[in-house]
Write a structure and sequence with these properties.
The complex is a heterodimer of chains A (about 525) and B (about 230). Chain A has about 525 residues and is of the alpha+beta class. Chain A is about 35% helix and about 20% strand. In chain A, strands 15-14-19-18-16-17 form a six-stranded antiparallel beta sheet. In chain A, strand 14 and strand 15 form a beta hairpin. Chain A is globular and about 70 Å long. Chain B folds into two domains: about 110 residues, Beta-grasp domain (Ubiquitin-like (UB roll)); about 120 residues, Orthogonal Bundle (Fumarate Reductase Iron-sulfur Protein, Chain B, domain 2), CATH 1.10.1060.10. Classes of the chains: A alpha+beta (about 525), B alpha+beta (about 230). The structure holds flavin-adenine dinucleotide and FE2/S2 (inorganic) cluster.
């Protein structure tokens, strides 16, 4: 019997990896701090991309490839993206056969909507709860293998550290959050799928569960972090309860418009400046425009022209949420919005097969750096999580090690106290705005200097990556270097920790190891 | 707006519980979850009597009623903290306790593992491709929206965590399995388990329907699951 694969994180990427393993008869130990139902993946609203071409627009995987690569501004690995977009139609059809309640159109066709940065309707959706609907079906399917004993859940367990033997990964140590007990989990491979490093910032649109602690521990152990400075601001968010509240891109995909008041009349600035894509330019551009216009006036998202039938069938959740949380009915009033941190294009460095530099250690989903380059297209991350999770599991199965026996390693120091976390969050937020410059980044670094703990260490790596990239590209905009500089920076930023210092280097965009 | 939050605290399952109050200042549109987050960010956290307090243990994730983590008893009723707003609370005071039906872990954290385990022992999954009828699309969508927060089990007169009765979660989730399955041995097994673990134990109080924090059509899902499992319709 092969040794099991340990999967840390039970969102979409973790579930996908567990399914791929179990379907091949390999046992998966599925670890997560809270059950899958609580993972950030359930929050995804807008949809998942696949060139299904059900709308008669002549869409193709080639076009999906071209749009993804263009949005990524040269930093996405073409081979990996090719694999992603080619797998997409089958992934979405498989989800349908698992019982995902996608909106349908015509006779048995999956309906598709417009999404930012895409020339065709390519985003499959389930009203405005796509993530939750996909998760419910995936959880049902994984449950089948739980009952067969092929997936063993360790819910309420937090990742602590890796079990390593000569830098080969042989499992990990987790802590039972209920009892405090430390549990070593032996495995022939470990797949990390712990989501984005939202906890570095504290007030993103993402789940408060995604603290970034697991990625930070891997970084401390010497696993490189790539493209960490590429952080996606979503153009349409609002403040609620100390966190950013998202109004999905689906709102603009279905006809919502951005405006500011000028001379007593609404000025639809995106439509004027970008006639082809209008309000649906890639997010880096829309966010910068909203930020720019927001300096002198309130920017609004206007959904009033969307037909009520479309609102009801495709966006009903968004309306309810705006009424509950913002106390505004978007059918009657425009919504005041501003950009907020939403997605991390960068993360744990992996190759085209989702391998990290440590043999036996893989990463998938939002925690890793793959597919999205300098800017992610909405709808590509659910896809990347499902696809990447399966690729990681396939790689792990090909390379399952059978060595065992390690001793319990030294554990990282205690988590940062609340005071330190508050400071880290405020430094990260103020240094890594939509528009950055050397001065604020360096000042932020100085403030984090000497702060103990893994999260501040990871925070410093993100800031140093942003300092070193002296250009503007995708989600990284430097007012002191406003131009794109391909000669120096058509490369991935790679931050490493050698036990005493962090170094940042630039590496060629990979084509697979 | 100034208000008081009174929280039932308990170090662990064995220790004695006690009440601790905190003074807060916020606007009426804040959710209880936002208040708890704000409190836990205070350094130091001081209670209403001026004594130092440990951060309050509780579970939360999305803060927008999508993950079910933050269910707790607020002024006597099980609710989602992120979907309960100060404006809705009487007298500007909130009394917060953990759900009482589940084993206590610490403060407001309880072990809801039984909810997930029940779905597993009921064999709730599809054996084969989903068969999707247009007519029931919306109901299947509602079925899949269930947050597994446990509020419906908290108010259910027939549910106890040690018992065999699986509660409304089984009927809600069961619907999409019954509705999308072809006739099969597996379906027969699910129906049999459902009759025993849900249908025969349910006293039809429908308190589950009224309490659902996201307003799922619990009664309709239940009626239809019963019809499928008991009468094969
Ligand atoms: C509001 C919102 C809307 C979105 N809408 C869309 C959309 O429409 N389309 C799209 O493509 N993308 C969307 N996204 C992005 C997308 O949701 C995420 O990128 C994707 O769900 C990530 O999946 P994941 O499996 O990598 O991680 P997650 O779903 O975040 O799961 C992470 C898992 O890791 C666990 N975990 C974390 N840390 C630890 C630890 N230390 N120890 C143990 N377990 C741990 C968590 O408990 C969880 O199970 C949206 C994001 C947000 C926030
Ligand atoms: S925090 Fe997710 S439902 Fe309340």
């Amino acid at each position: 019997m092969s040794r099991p694969i340990v999967i840390v994180g039970a969102g979409l990427a973790g579930l996908s990896a567990a399914l791929a393993a179990a379907e091949n008869g390999i046992k998966a130990k599925l670890v997560s701090e809270l059950p899958s139902e609580r993972a950030q993946s359930v929050m995804a609203e807008g949809g998942i991309n696949a060139a299904l071409n059900t709308k008669g627009e002549g869409d193709s995987t080639e076009q999906h490839f071209a749009d993804t690569i263009a949005a990524a501004c040269g930093l996405a690995a073409p081979n990996a993206v090719r694999g992603l977009v080619e797998a997409a139609p089958d992934i979405v059809r498989r989800l349908l056969s698992l019982g995902v309640q996608f909106n349908m159109s015509g006779f048995d066709d999956i309906d598709l909507r417009n999404f930012g940065g895409q020339r065709k309707k390519r985003t499959a959706f389930a009203q405005s709860d796509t993530g939750k609907q996909i998760m419910a079906a995936m959880i049902d399917e994984v449950r089948k293998y739980e009952a067969k004993g092929l997936v063993e859940r360790y819910s309420h367990h937090a990742f602590m550290t890796l079990l390593l033997r000569d830098s080969v990964c042989c499992g990990c140590a987790v802590r039972d959050c209920y009892t405090g007990e430390l549990v070593p989990l032996d495995g022939g491979a470990v797949i990390v799928a712990t989501g984005g490093m939202h906890g570095l910032f504290g007030n993103t649109t993402g789940s408060l569960l995604n603290t970034g602690a697991a990625a930070a521990e891997l970084f401390r152990l010497g696993v490189p972090i790539a493209n960490a400075e590429f952080i996606q601001y979503h153009p349409t968010t609002a403040e609620h309860g100390g966190k950013r509240f998202l109004i999905s891109e689906a709102a603009r995909g279905e006809g919502g418009r951005l405006f500011v008041m000028r001379g007593g009349k609404p000025w639809y600035f995106m439509e004027e400046k970008y006639p082809e894509f209008g309000n649906l330019m890639p997010r880096d551009i829309v966010s910068r425009e909203v930020w720019e216009h927001g300096k002198s006036a309130q920017v609004f998202l206007d959904m009033r022209e969307i037909p009520s039938e479309v609102m009801k069938k495709k966006l009903s959740g968004i309306i309810d949420d705006c009424i509950a949380y913002l106390r505004i009915d978007p059918q009657k009033e425009p919504l005041p919005i501003s950009p907020g941190i939403h997605y991390f294009m960068g993360g744990i460095q992996v190759d085209g097969r989702h391998r990290t530099v440590f043999p036996g250690l893989y990463a998938a989903g939002e925690c890793c750096c793959q597919y999205h380059g300098a800017n992610r297209l909405g709808g590509n991350s659910l896809l990347g999580a499902i696809y990447g999770g399966a690729i990681a599991a396939n790689s792990a199965m090909d390379e399952l090690s059978d060595s065992a026996k390690t001793t319990m390693p030294a554990l990282p120091g205690a988590a940062a106290p609340q005071e330190a976390l508050n400071k880290l969050n405020s430094v990260m937020q103020s240094s890594l705005g939509i528009v950055r410059d050397r001065e604020t980044l360096v000042a932020g670094l100085a403030e984090l200097e000497g702060m103990p703990g893994n999260l501040p260490l990871l925070g410093r790596a993100v800031l140093m990556s942003a300092v070193r990239r002296e250009e503007s590209r995708g989600g990284h905009f430097r007012s002191d270097f406003p131009e794109r500089d391909d000669d120096r920076f058509l490369r991935a930023t790679v931050a490493r920790f050698d036990g005493s210092r962090i170094t940042v280097s630039f590496e060629k965009i990979q084509e697979g190891r | 707006m100034a208000f008081t939050v009174k929280i039932k605290r308990q170090e662990n399952a064995e220790s004695e519980s006690y009440w601790q109050s905190f003074l807060c200042d916020g606007n009426a549109d804040m959710s209880v979850a936002a208040v708890l987050n704000e409190m836990n960010r205070r350094v130091p956290l001081i209670d209403a009597d001026g004594s130092g307090a440990d951060p309050v243990a509780w579970e939360c994730g999305c803060l927008v009623r999508k993950c079910g983590a933050c269910a707790m008893r607020i002024n006597g009723l099980p609710r989602l903290a992120c979907n309960t707003f100060l404006r809705d609370l009487k007298d500007g005071a909130a009394t917060i306790e953990p759900l009482s039906k589940f084993p206590l872990v610490r403060d407001l954290v309880v072990d809801r593992g039984i909810v997930f385990n029940n779905l597993k022992t009921l064999n709730l999954w599809l054996d084969g491709e989903a068969h999707m009828s247009d007519w029931t699309h919306e109901l299947r969508y509602q079925s899949a929206k269930c947050l597994m927060c446990g509020c419906c089990l908290e108010v259910c007169p027939n549910f106890s965590p040690g018992g065999d009765f699986a509660g409304a979660v089984a009927a809600i989730s069961g619907f999409r399995v019954f509705d999308q399955s072809h006739q099969s041995k597996h379906l027969g097994e699910v129906a049999a388990a459902y009759r025993k673990r849900y249908f025969e134990g349910c006293g039809r109080s429908l308190s589950c329907h009224d309490i659902c924090p996201i307003g799922l059509p619990v009664e309709e899902l239940m009626v239809r699951s019963n019809a499928a499992a008991v009468w094969g319709r």
